[in-house]
Amino acid sequence: MAFLIDDILLAPFKGVQFIAKKIQEAAQEEFLDEGAVRRDLTTLYMQLETGKITEDEFEQRENELVVKLEEIEEHKEQ
After folding, report:
1. Of 20, 15, 68, whose CA–CA distance to 40 is shortest?
2. Which residues are CB-neighbours of 65 under 8 A, at least 6 positions away?
3. pTM for the full predicted model
4. How far apart are CA 32 and CA 76, in angstroms?
5. Coil, helix or strand for 51?
6. 59: left (phi over 0), alpha (psi -120 to 50) or beta
7. What's the rounded Cα separation, in Å, for the pair 32 and 59?
8. To pair with 45 at 20 to 30 A between CA atoms, which of 12, 20, 69, 75?
9. pLDDT digit string (tens) for 63-75?
10. Measured distance CA(58)–CA(41) in Å, rounded
């Protein structure tokens, strides 16, 4: 009987914990999506070639994406 009461009282906390875990998993999956970063790089190169962005803008954004790719690779190695 005591276990049933404990389960009832702790159910809201377990629900919040479950949701937090799912959010963390989704965020980590998004962070580790190497394909999305590569697609962003491809789009960036196309924008540079078509003149939609300047070389300075390209270099800044490219550096950010390369750093992100390096972080993903480091994380996967661990």
Report:
1. 68
2. 37, 40, 41, 44
3. 0.64
4. 8
5. coil
6. alpha
7. 22
8. 75
9. 999 999 999 889 8
10. 10
Q: Considering the domain boundaries, does residue 21 fall inside one?
A: no
pLDDT digits (tens, 9 = 90+) for 13-54: 888 888 989 998 888 888 788 999 999 999 999 999 999 999
The total of structural domains in the chain comes to: 1
63, part of any domain: yes
- C-alpha 26/C-alpha 29 separation (Å) is 5
**Residue 6 forms part of a structural domain:** no
Q: Whole-angstrom Cα distance, residue 70 to residue 32? A: 11
Residue burial 52-66, b: 16+ Cβ < 10 Å; e: rest:
ebeeeebeebbeeee
Q: Give me 69's structure tokens.
A: 């790719």
